[in-house]
Amino acid sequence: MGLKEDALRQIQQNTRPPTPWLLRVPQGDTTLECNFTAVESLAGAFDGFEITTTQLATATMDQLRELGKALEERLTYLLEPIHLLEEDPQGPSVMMRSAKPQQEPQAVQYYELLLKTGGSLSLKRYRKEKTQTHRHPIACQMTLEVFGRLVDDLDPDNWPTDILNQP
Questions:
Q1: What is the crossing angle of helices 144-154 and 61-74, to 10°?
Q2: Are 13 and 21 in contact (CB under 8 A)?
Q3: Of 35, 64, 136, 149, which shows the fewest CB atoms inside 10 Å?
Q4: Nearest alpha carbon to residue 29 among 155, 166, 164
Q5: CB atoms within 10 A of CB 167
């Protein structure tokens, strides 16, 4: 079974668990952790999504950039598609954010995806009030079908093989 199938199986077995509830799915050299704040039969909300994998342990800046571009092409179904925003060669890491954040009269909301050498990929959603200088994390809400697709797209076993295997 893949990461997606294991994650969805655990969720189906734990519908309406006490929240918050940490979904933890280890599989080989990859582990998915997702902190659910709500889980129902058709949808859920989570405030933290992280995949750790040895496949990113020694990734170069060029490999992170290429992986970011590949994920950008896949993750078009979120509330706002995400795009490569910033690179930190010192990390090295790549930050991606919503291309067109959700605009409200008093605030803006957006996704942020971080790819880091050392082995982690994380997805969070943030809200920034227009009158404030700081943002704060908020729950990502999605159907379980979309969540499964997200897990599948972010599963290292489904990344293009040529990106991390290049010298």
A1: 150
A2: no
A3: 136
A4: 155
A5: 4
From residue 163, alpha-carbon distances to 43, 103, 105, 137, 150 in Å are 33, 34, 41, 31, 19
Q: Report the half-sphere exposure of 96 (CA within 13 A, side-chain side).
A: 24
Q: Are strands 102-103 and 120-129 parallel, antiparallel or unpaired?
A: unpaired
Please give the model's pTM, rounded to 2 decimal places. 0.91
Whether cis (ω within 30° of 0) applies to the bond prior to 105 is: no
Is there a contact between 112 and 94 (Cβ–Cβ < 8 Å)? no
List the chain residues with pLDDT less than 70: 15-17, 166-167
- Tell the residue number behind the tokens 């897990």, with chain if given: 151
